[in-house]
Specification:
Blueprint (H helix, E strand, L loop, with lengths): L2 H11 L7 H36 L8 H17 L8 H18 L3 H16 L14 E2 L2 E2 L14 E6 L5 E9 L8 H19 L8 E5 L5 H11 L6 E6 L2 E4 L4
Length: about 260
């Protein structure tokens, strides 16, 4: 390249940018296009990063096994509420409740919620068929009579259901049933006695709200070992206890005080 040609190229290279309208518009379009390409590249890169993070993130258990367990729990609860299984034997009802408890453990629900659902399921299963229509309108008692609308719930009692029972003396009385789904068959003797003590305290508190002369029946779903049954019976049949009967599955104990 000759010195003259080099001078021409140098002059063009360092020449000031054209200031005409057309050149400025062209430059603006080029800048906008370049900026749009950068924005698209940034968006694609961010999308890839988010996708990679989702892949690395552990799967939310609530979206898989826990949600499946909750759906199955609700399906079982609806059927039990309709009284579909009230005709089953006690052993079959136990199997259903054991299945329900297993699903509860997988569900990841708070323990308070689990206890409430388990109690409701047990109540729906073990309420006699003739009392099934009363489930949704359980009677609440206060100070020896029915609690009236507007009255306080403090000091009131709401049994699972009520029906007549025959006492060892032959007398027939109306009794209020309290269904218990506690896993008493898995408790030690000391733990079972402690649990019975809490249930006795609850029964005494409820008895003050129930009509006079109408005792309480505690009905446990599970039947623990004989020694556990006797230990709990001795606690629940203490002097002055309002519990007239104690049931462990199909085994029934009568309080001699009645």
């Amino acid at each position: 390249m000759t010195p003259q040609t080099q001078q021409i190229f140098a002059s063009r290279l360092h020449a000031p940018a054209c200031s005409c309208v057309h050149c400025q518009a062209r430059q603006g379009e080029q800048q906008n296009e370049s900026r749009a390409k950068k924005d698209r590249a940034i968006a694609v890169r961010r999308a890839r990063q988010q996708k990679a993070r989702r892949r690395r993130r552990p799967t939310d258990p609530r979206s898989t096994s826990q949600l499946r367990a909750i759906r199955r729990l609700m399906a079982l609860l609806v059927k039990a509420r309709r009284g579909v299984w009230t005709h089953l034997s006690m052993n079959n009802k136990k199997r259903l409740i054991d299945k329900f408890v297993r699903l509860l453990r997988v569900s990841g629900l708070p323990q308070v919620r689990q206890n409430k659902l388990q109690g409701d399921f047990d109540e729906y299963l073990r309420t006699p068929r003739r009392s099934s229509q009363q489930r949704m309108a359980q009677r609440s008692y206060l100070a020896g009579g029915l609690r009236l609308p507007g009255q306080t719930t403090r000091g009131s009692a709401r049994p699972d259901y009520a029906k007549s029972i025959r006492l060892p003396s032959g007398k027939v009385v109306r009794a209020h049933f309290n269904l218990k789904s506690d896993q008493v068959h898995r408790l030690s003797k000391s733990a079972a006695k402690s649990r019975a003590g809490r249930h006795l305290k609850q029964a005494r508190r409820n008895a003050r709200a129930l009509p006079h002369g109408e005792p309480i029946v505690l009905s446990y779903l599970h039947r623990p070992a004989k020694g556990i049954q006797i230990a709990m019976r001795n606690v629940l049949f203490q002097r002055g206890s309002p519990v007239a009967q104690l049931r462990f599955g199909s085994t029934t104990y009568h309080n001699p005080a009645f």
